[in-house]
């Protein structure tokens, strides 16, 4: 599939790492090696997602397993995620139970920013 996309000049391919070691055991984090064959086959920018933390994301980039890493849940719950990564600040926990609810605020724009101590 990734090789076939190359002939169309697709700019990027965004894939999600599987989070399951097998049918019954949930993995702790992403399997950053699982998409390497697709990454090698695709000529454009390769974006990966799927349970990455700061360390996993840096490792995927430094080992050339991705060009970019998406942090969906972590960005939702940490609107200042780049700053938190930069200063190694603790992360807000995300609350899956508030995803996809009809409330326009709870779970989407109610997560706190770091306090500005400047």
From TrEMBL:
Kindly indicate whether the keyword Lipid biosynthesis belongs to this entry. no
InterPro entries recorded? Aldolase_TIM, OxRdtase_FMN_N, Oye-like
Keywords, comma-separated and alphabetical: Flavoprotein, FMN, NADP
- Keyword Flavoprotein set for record: yes
The cofactor required is: FMN
Coiled-coil ranges from the UniProt annotation: none
- At the top level, the lineage of the source is Eukaryota
Recorded GO molecular functions are: FMN binding; oxidoreductase activity
Residue span, NADH:flavin oxidoreductase/NADH oxidase N-terminal domain? 12-90
Q: Which family does it belong to?
A: Belongs to the NADH:flavin oxidoreductase/NADH oxidase family.
Under which name does UniProt file this protein?
A: NADH:flavin oxidoreductase/NADH oxidase N-terminal domain-containing protein
Q: Which organism is it from?
A: Acacia crassicarpa
């Amino acid at each position: 599939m990734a090789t076939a996309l190359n002939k169309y000049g697709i700019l990027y391919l965004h894939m999600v790492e599987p989070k399951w070691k097998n049918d019954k055991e949930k993995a702790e984090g992403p399997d950053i090696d699982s998409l390497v064959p697709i990454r090698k086959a695709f000529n454009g920018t390769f974006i990966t997602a799927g349970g990455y933390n700061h360390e996993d994301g840096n490792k995927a980039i430094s080992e050339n397993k991705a060009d970019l890493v998406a942090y969906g849940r972590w960005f939702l719950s940490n609107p200042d995620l780049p700053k938190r990564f930069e200063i190694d600040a603790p992360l807000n926990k995300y609350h899956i139970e508030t995803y996809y609810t009809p409330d326009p605020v709870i779970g989407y724009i109610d997560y706190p920013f770091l306090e500005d101590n400047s």
